[in-house]
Specification:
Helix content is 56%, strand content 18%. The protein has 176 residues and is of the alpha+beta class. The protein has 3 domains: 52 residues; 47 residues; 59 residues, Nucleotide Exchange Factor Grpe, Chain A, domain 2 (Roll). The strands form 2 sheets. Strands 1-4-5 form a 3-stranded antiparallel β-sheet. A hairpin with a 2-residue loop joins strand 4 and strand 5. Helix 3 packs antiparallel against helix 4.
Length: 176
């Protein structure tokens, strides 16, 4: 009789399995599955946030590199205008006679400073084919050269690193 009482207190029925634990076990399995699902969602969200942060960080680094490369663009553009005026002044002085060597050295020094900052001349010569990505056609004139060829370079073009800072200004040939 004592054994019978102990079996009934342990929740065992006639089959010997716990009567109340079947439902409790399923409830625990459901809770575990829900917790695992929530864990997976949180992990996936965290991984997406981490990837987004890494992408953001990379984008910001690229932006900062661009700012470092092109940040002085306005100043360099202004100095190009100074170089152009310097060249005009030199040509005027050359018409009156020899020019002091020091004046040429100053111009070269300005040009060297700009080169250190990433400025390069766009290589365009008379006779080259007109390329609108690096040159601006100011006019077309009839010429012996093939149509679309550069007849005269009016103003030198410049690149700052890979970006065209100022296109060359040219006159292009057209059919007669």
């Amino acid at each position: 009789m004592a054994d019978e009482i102990n079996n009934n207190h342990n929740g065992a029925g006639e089959s010997g399995a716990p009567a109340a634990n079947g439902a409790g076990e399923q409830e625990l399995k459901d809770k575990l599955a829900a917790a695992e699902k929530q864990r997976d969602e949180y992990l996936a969200g965290w991984q997406r946030a981490k990837a987004d942060f890494i992408n953001y960080k990379n984008d910001e680094m690229k932006r900062l590199e661009e700012v470092a490369q092109y940040g002085a663009q306005g100043l360099i553009r202004d100095l190009i205008s100074v170089l152009d005026n310097f060249d005009l002044g030199l040509r005027a002085l050359e018409k009156n006679g020899p020019v002091e060597k020091g004046v040429y050295l100053i111009r070269t020094q300005i040009e060297d400073i700009l080169k250190k900052r990433g400025l390069t001349k766009i290589d365009i010569k008379v006779g080259d084919t007109f390329d609108p990505s690096v040159a601006e056609a100011l006019s077309e004139v009839p010429s012996d050269k093939p149509p679309g060829s550069i007849v005269e370079v009016i103003e030198q073009g410049y690149r700052l690193h890979e970006k065209v800072l100022r296109p060359a200004r040219v006159i292009v040939s057209k059919e007669k």
